[in-house]
Specification:
Oligomer: single chain
Largest sheet: none
Number of helices: 7
Distance between the termini: 32 Å
Length: 110
Amino acid sequence: MAAITILMGTWWICESIPIPATGLIPLALMPWLGILRINEAGAPYASDSIFLFMGGFILAPAMQRWHLHRRMALHIINHVGFSPARIVLGFMVASAGISAFISREPLIKS
């Protein structure tokens, strides 16, 4: 396990391979070296938080590609107004709207 940690740290510092790929090293090496079974090594990769962030990271480039982020900002500013206080209000309303639909809590409790 110490060797895997040192290998990952070295590859992160040197960027020998892309950093996200370096994060997958334990998933491959732990079962191969007999440290953990594949189910145990893969369990941290399947948490709700990881899927939440992964979904956000997938949606963000798509929003940038089609300039949806700019259109949403202009739409909000057109509705709330142009004064500094109203722009802050627009940020607050947009944040509240996003927070209403994005949650870490699972919908179905098992």
